[in-house]
């Protein structure tokens, strides 16, 4: 199918750099999610790839061919927007057929391709309906069919499911993933939902202030965030602070040995990496402040003696009471200083935690 290359892209609005110098390779058939907070430049990157914004610097290549100055309608890209921009008075089939008509394909061929595209998104029987007669999820499926019917080399989606309720969003996400795999189409998907990115992507690109903060598989992004920003942005994370002295973090609950220069650090601990047991911790008192039952797990809000708050995930069977004193231990801790990861440590039977990976 197709490979996408972004080379040193730069874009500013009103004299302010929104994208400073962004380079990215998307492999043939890969689904890449651009993830980041509002205003981080995700849509701007996508719109530049689609030809709706012009970069001031850099180049966009599709299969090695420079398309930077090619207008959107001539690019081998198909775009799906959050607001699907369908013509509500027209039939579903006519909406999907629109681009093919512009290409002046024979009528019978248009009908065949429209049917094929609607079948692909599970709307084979809906061709004659008016768009306004469809649900939000069905309308978004039509928008995807309309993009795919033109057989683009690259599929671009800008928060396509953001306006749908959670169940529908999850279903459409799975359907899109199936379609994308079946077609093997190279895809760039913009979202600010980390769960969406974790569920969909082959690779996640976290954008922050128009720059790539980290690029990694969902698994790696979750298990081994490289920066404090990514650690806090993806999933839930506790960040108890302490000092590093003589190769030892002096946190009373989470003593960590690591080759890290002395000075203040933050320990990054996932709620599911904390083990909570009844009784008092050796180093410092910790009490359950609140317990929320999510069915699949309990989420404990724990207050430490020094006032710090931690979230801990427990099996649904291990209920605690508010105010109960508990013991805590961590199975995986990363050390951050000035926003950057210094080391990652896992437990050791002899001495609590010791360093296993030094970054
Ligand atoms: N046409 C425009 N004119 C002026 N500023 C713009 C324009 N488009 C985007 N911007 C600015 O560029 C920055 C990046 O915007 P962009 O829409 O790419 O971010 P985003 O990460 O997609 O955010 P969101 O998740 O809110 O859609 C923002 O500060 C935005 O205000």
From TrEMBL:
Residues 4-234 form the ABC transporter domain. The keyword Nucleotide-binding applies. This is ABC transporter ATP-binding protein. Keywords: ATP-binding, Nucleotide-binding, Transport. Gene3D superfamilies: 2.40.50.100, P-loop containing nucleotide triphosphate hydrolases. GO terms for cellular component: ATP-binding cassette (ABC) transporter complex. Signal peptide: none annotated. One of its GO terms (molecular function) is transmembrane transporter activity. One of its GO terms (biological process) is quaternary ammonium group transport.
């Amino acid at each position: 199918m197709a490979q996408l290359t972004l080379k040193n892209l730069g874009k500013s609005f009103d004299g302010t750099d929104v994208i400073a110098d962004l380079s990215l390779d998307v492999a043939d058939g890969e689904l890449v999610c651009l993830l980041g907070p509002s205003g981080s430049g995700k849509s701007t990157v996508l719109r530049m790839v689609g030809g709706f914004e012009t970069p001031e610097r850099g180049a966009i290549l599709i299969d090695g061919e420079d398309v930077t100055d090619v207008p959107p309608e001539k690019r081998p890209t198909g775009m799906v927007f959050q607001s699907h921009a369908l013509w509500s008075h027209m039939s579903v089939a006519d909406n999907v057929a629109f681009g093919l008509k512009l290409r002046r394909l024979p009528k019978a061929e248009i009908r065949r391709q429209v049917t094929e595209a609607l079948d692909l998104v599970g709307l084979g029987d809906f061709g004659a309906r008016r768009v306004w007669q469809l649900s939000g999820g069905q309308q978004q499926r039509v928008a995807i069919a309309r993009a795919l019917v033109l057989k683009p080399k690259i599929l671009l989606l800008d928060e396509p499911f953001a306006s749908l309720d959670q169940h529908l969003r999850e279903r459409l996400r799975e359907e899109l993933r199936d379609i994308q795999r079946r077609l093997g189409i190279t895809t760039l998907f913009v979202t600010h939902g980390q769960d969406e990115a974790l569920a969909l992507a082959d690779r996640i690109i976290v954008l922050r202030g128009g720059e790539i903060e980290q690029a990694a598989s969902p698994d790696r992004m979750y298990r081994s965030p490289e920066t404090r920003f990514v650690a806090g942005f993806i999933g839930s994370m506790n960040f108890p602070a302490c000092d590093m002295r003589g190769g030892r973090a002096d946190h009373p609950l989470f003593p960590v040995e690591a080759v890290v220069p002395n000075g203040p650090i933050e320990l990054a601990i996932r709620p599911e990496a904390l083990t909570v047991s009844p009784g008092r911790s050796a180093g410092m008192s910790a009490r359950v402040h609140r317990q929320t039952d999510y069915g699949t797990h309990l989420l404990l809000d724990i207050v430490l003696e020094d006032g710090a708050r931690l979230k801990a995930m427990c099996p649904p069977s291990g209920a605690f009471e508010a105010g109960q004193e508990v013991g805590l231990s961590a199975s995986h801790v990363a050390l951050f200083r000035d926003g950057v990861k210094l080391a990652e440590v896992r437990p050791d039977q002899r001495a609590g935690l010791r360093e296993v990976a030094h970054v």
